[in-house]
Amino acid sequence: MTTQASTAQAGYIGSPQRTALAERLGGPAGLLGTPGFLRLALSNALSHSFGMRMQGVTIAWVVLELTGSKMWLGIVNGTPAISIVLFSLFAGVLADSRDARRVLATVRAALAATAFIVAVLTFAGQVRVEHLILYALIVMGLSAMDMPMGRTLTLQVVGQARLMNANAMQTMVMNVISIVTPMSIAVVIGLAGSGAAFLLLSAGYALGALLMLKTRVSAPPISRGSNALADLAAGVAYVRTSPKIRGLVTLGFLMPFVGVYFALIPVFAREVLDGGAGSLGLLVGSFSLGSLVGSIRLVTSGPMGGRGRKMISLSLAFGAGMVAFSFSQSLLLSCAISLSMGFLGVYWQNLLTTMVQTESAPEMRGRALSLFTMGFQLASLGWLIGGVTASVLGPELALIIAGGCFAGFSSLVLALNGEARLID
User: Fold this and answer.
1) Alpha helices of 242-330 — where are they, by DSSP H?
2) For the whole model, what pTM was predicted?
3) pLDDT value at 89 more than 60
């Protein structure tokens, strides 16, 4: 039965607004009915939300507890850039040549095991800064393999026509988890200590691995290259020589400037706003709530035109939000700014990710996504940049500089890569 037929039976003929609403809601319902999509979305949400946001916040809090040093905060969270680069380069080759579902299940099980080990060390009072550095190196290397494969599987499951809605729905699930988790972690740390927070992360990764094992994906035939290094070189050459893809991938490498914002949230919560774990949870939760609202809007929206041009305005607005956050002295105002940045950020991220997925050549998609997600995961460099600049210049000026660089360089990249700017 078509959406229009069901609408007519319900007596909505003659109400264009209600008809349009019913048509919009048909998309999400269809996605949820797609075999394998719901489990894939939940597994990706658990892995990425815990790994990319909650894990960073938990590590940052423990580092501040151990050292009280913004410099160490930057070093611990910035060092993993080394493993991100190494693992990301080969993740795309695996995505284009191996069963991504099996690899993802293995990676997420390994993430659960490493978080559990750190939890044990923390409960025993034996965790040290060098342990956290090693942990971050391992986890971010594994996550570098996780992201491009998760994106590749999404396209295989839903197809190109519904990809933007599918990406937005996954983001929506991620943000539902992220809204609940910051306050949960704040409560857990307050009641049971930091070890319990790592234990919670381990459980999330383990559940993500289990869901991936139970996901059935009808994947296209796998083409196994005979030489991984040659396959890797071919992927890099493809991105370098395609102006459209080159511009989109380059935008992902601006994420370290966004990472400065997330790196300094604990500092603003403790030092600028004179709060504790509760203030930290509210600031992170506000960003997640804004992302949730934005993702709901994207899930229920129709096709979006002028996507390349929209990237410029979104980049400028997000950079301005970072600058505004640096001037706030009120927890309420800071939460409001964080919420608006979450809304803008989810549009920027989903729009950019979908363009990379759909505009890349099918045989090169995994490798293009691996380079793209490498840039996203190098957001951890923002922790290093933020920690160093905040120690020297103060957190407010560090965030102003990062926001200005993000907005300015985004505009420059799109100006120099006209094909990316003109994507409809």
Assistant:
1) 243-252, 255-267, 277-299, 307-327
2) 0.67
3) yes
